[in-house]
Structure formats: C-alpha cells, structure tokens
Amino acid sequence: MFRTLVATLSITGLLAISAPALAAGSGCLNTPALDGSHQSSSMNLASGVTAKSWTWSAGNDAENAGVSPLGTKVSVIEGNLRNINFGILHWAIPQTQTLRDLSQESDSAIASLNGDYFDGSGPWNAMVENSQVIYSPPTTTGLVGMTTKKVVVSKGYRATGSLTVGSTKYQVTGVNQQSPGPESMVVYSASSENKVPPKGETTLVLKGGLVYKIYPAGAAVNIKSGIVIQAKGLVAKALAKLKVKAKAKLVLNKAPMYETQMSADTVKTAGTVSSASVTLIFDAVNYQNLSTSGATLFDENFAGTPNRARTTLQLATDDQGRYFVKNVYASGASVSVQSGELVIQANGAAGVSARKFKVGDLVTVKAGYQALAKSNFVSAAGRGPRLVELGRFIWICAQHSKDFRPRSAIGWDQDGRVWLVASSRGQDAVDFGFRQGGSTADQMGHWLMSLGATEAVLLDGGGSTTVEIKNPAAGWQRLDIPDSAWYRELANGFSLQAKG
C-alpha cells in the first residue's frame, strides 16, 4: 500500500484451527480455518523453513468462507530462530527495488516478505542492520525485528534438551519461561522466579528420577513439589498418557549466554559526534528531508548527495581508523559521502554546535537509539500496528477498514518460531495497478494466532504485498500471486536467512 504522505513520526505437524467466535458488534469478520480442505501448496525450503498456502476460489467458495469474493490466497512462511536469522533487505537509501531483486541480492535469504510503508523520501520508520542504525527519520518510529537478549536463567530461555520416559524421548522447548507456548514443553526448576507457573494442557512433576505426578488437564503446581513440566499442544497429549512412577531422565544442555528473539518496539535515534570539547547530537540517519532544527548523519548507505543545511561537517578516517573533522562548512554545502567518510547536515541549534568543531579534531561517532521496551535490535525495519500482543488479539476491528485487500504481517512466539504471512487475490488479474482481493487486517491476526503466534504486527499491504521463496529445485519464485504479475518496487523487505 504505497503511501504519498511524508513520515513525521519446533514441534511440526501442528494443524491450524480457526479463531474463536467473535463477540457480536466487534466489527470483526469471520476468519476461515487454515485447514487441509483449502491447502493448495506445501514446500520445505531449507534450514527448517517451510512455505505453505491456502486458497479460496473466487465466487461462492470464497464468499461463503467470509473472505474476498474475488478470491483469497494465504501464503505462510514459517521458520525458527534456533536455526535461521531474521534479516532486512534493502538497496542504497532511498532507492527502491522489487522484492525479487532484493532477495536475489542476498546470498543467505531463503524467503522474503515486503517491508515498511514508504514514500519518495524512503521508509516511514527506522532500519537497523548489524546492530547499527542505518536509517532513521527525525522522530519516534515503530520497528519489528530480531533482537539479542542476555539470558537470565531464572527469567527463562529457549532450551535444548529432552525428557526420556521409557523408550520415548520428548524435546524440551524452554526453561523457566513466563508461560508455556501453544506448542511447547517448558521445564520449571528450583531457580525459576515463577514459583507457581501457569498451567499447561498437561502438567508433570518429576522427583527422584521418576514421574511423581501427572495432571492430564494441567495444574498450577508450586516448584517446591519437584521439577515441574508444563506442556501444550501435541506433546501435552502424549505426556498425559504416561504412568506415575515411570522412570524419567531429564537432560538440559547448558543455558546460552544470549539468545535471539523477535520483538516489536518504538525507537528514536540518539546519536552523537563528540570531540574533546564539543558534542553534537543528531536525531536522523540518511533521511534526505532535513529537519529545520536538528542534525542528520549520512554514510555510505545513502545514495546521492544530501541536501544542504545551515552547517555541514565532513568526517574522514585516519590510518588508525579514527574519525577526524575533514571540513567544516559554516554556511553549509552539498557534499556527497565518499568511501569511509561521513557527512553531517545540521540546522538550527544543532547547526550552531556544528560550527564549533575544528578541522583536524578527532571525533567519536555513536549512532544509537532509545527503545521504549529496551529492545536490543540486531536487524529491524518499520512496522505497522500490533495485531496480537501477549497471546491476545488486540486489533479493534470496529475502528478499522473492513475492505478486502492484500495484507502482509509478521508473527512470532517465545520459542523462536517466526511466521511471514500474506493474503492476496492469488491471481494475475487485470487490476490497473490497484490490487484487490485478499483479506481484512483482523483476519490476518486471527490466522497468525491459529498458527501459534503470540505476537503479530501488520506491515504495508495493497500493491506492496509480495512473498518470495527460494525453491531448492527452481530458484526464486513468487508465492502470493503468479510470477507473471506486476511488481511494485519497495524501500525494503524482511527475510528469513540461513545462519552463517
């Protein structure tokens, strides 16, 4: 959905089920199940990444299901941060390119989805790559992406380990997490800060190497009782059939120091350029529409020549890799960014501060950000509003459009599972540049919840909605609609990427 406004601001085999019935007057539409009767494709890509789709044909089939009568195709890419990375695809800022070209440019990308809302100035929200801000408007923006978090054992983490009872081995998915996920087996030890963890669908208590107690319907059990295991999903059904006093061997691998997680957050750039006597604050990175009162940093990610401001600084590196002030343009200048250099354009009070630097000054440059929820992003880009948070559907349908349009969204859970999801018409239709069909935003949220997502955000949609997969047998191909359809050039995209 290209917008012309300027921004100022694993357990496999799970069968998806339909979302619960919605209260009358909520404004939400029915969400049909992603079940076998409408599944139209399934493919294993690589590194545990799968691509699946469900299709409702135009006419009565779609209309009776409550989706667009023009037809609806739901495309789902699933992976897990245990064995993949989550990355951002982009060219030089603010250039745009098709998602196919962005995907082919990446050696590690396995599947990709369109990214942020954008206009002629670039994405509406910031971008983080390799833990560094590479783009940011001079305002607070929303991001979604992969973070790195230091593991605190008492607070919980994704785990690798197993529970063996008899000849059967069950995989542990987490230790001391706040609650068991939809498809999980979480072990709560004596170190857990959650002394009475929320019950699963089945609860086990282990003591003395034996299954001490079994609660087939789940129970909230104090960890003083022994090692408590809370399970949900397919594994819960299996554990419910165990016998009390059966021998049990629990093996947990050493907790990692850090783990990657998905996160949605709100951030604001907080960068500085400092010499021994002067500190200049900049609040935007590679954003070509300069603010009237702040400073913007430009680096090699920016294509073209930055607009001229009241004061311009040109920074270069010496033979020791240290930045120094190469030029101070007290009346501003249009200076292109050269290899290994930085350009800072400053207006207002920031422009006055910039003039205090002297040619030859050694400077330290920090391009950081402040995140409302303190997320430490490794790779992230802009998002739209939240659909699901903490396992709850929070989209207020009555306040939003009920139009059926192509939609794109990302969902995830605490166990590292990530879903890239899009809805579309599923056909190469004559649409004069305005794509129709697809779904409502609330249907996207409920599909993600049915897949197991406990968090989900909406992305740009409409003509921007695009899903690409790297077919191991045939190379890159489009999943949401046929390859013959037209492409919109995008400011960025999201991808699931092979590690290493």
Q: Helix/strand/pairing class, anyone?
A: mainly beta
Mean pLDDT: 92
What overall form do the CA principal axes indicate? globular
By DSSP, the count of extended strands is 34
What's the story with the biggest beta sheet?
A: 10 strands, mixed
The value of Rg in angstroms is 25 Å
For the record, the count of structural domains works out to 3
| Count of helix runs | 5
What does the oligomeric state look like here?
A: single chain
Question: Helix coverage percent of residues?
Answer: under 10%
Strand content: 35-45%
**Terminal Cα separation, in Å?**
33 Å
Low-confidence stretches: 1-25
Question: What this model shows, in words?
Answer:
- By secondary structure, this protein is mainly beta.
- The two termini are 33 Å apart.
- The protein is built from five helices and 34 strands.
- It is globular.
- The strands form six sheets. Strands 10, 18, 19, 20, 21, 22, 23, 24, 25 and 26 form a ten-stranded mixed β-sheet that branches. Strands 1-2-3-30-29-31-27-28 form an eight-stranded antiparallel β-sheet.
- It is 7% helix and 40% strand.
- Strand 14 and strand 15 (210-215) form a beta hairpin.
- The chain has helices at residues 60-65, 99-105, 234-239, 348-354, 441-451; strands at 39-44, 50-56, 72-80, 84-89, 109-114, 118-119, 122-123, 127-129, 132-135, 141-150, 157-165, 168-175, 184-188, 202-207, 210-215, 227-232, 248-252, 258-274, 279-282, 284-285, 295-298, 311-317, 323-329, 342-346, 362-371, 377-382, 386-389, 392-393, 407-412, 417-424, 455-458, 467-471, 475-478, 493-498.
- The model is unreliable at 1-25 (pLDDT under 50).
- The chain folds into three domains: 39-125 and 383-498, no CATH class; 153-256, Sandwich (Jelly Rolls), CATH 2.60.120; 268-371, Jelly Rolls, CATH 2.60.120.
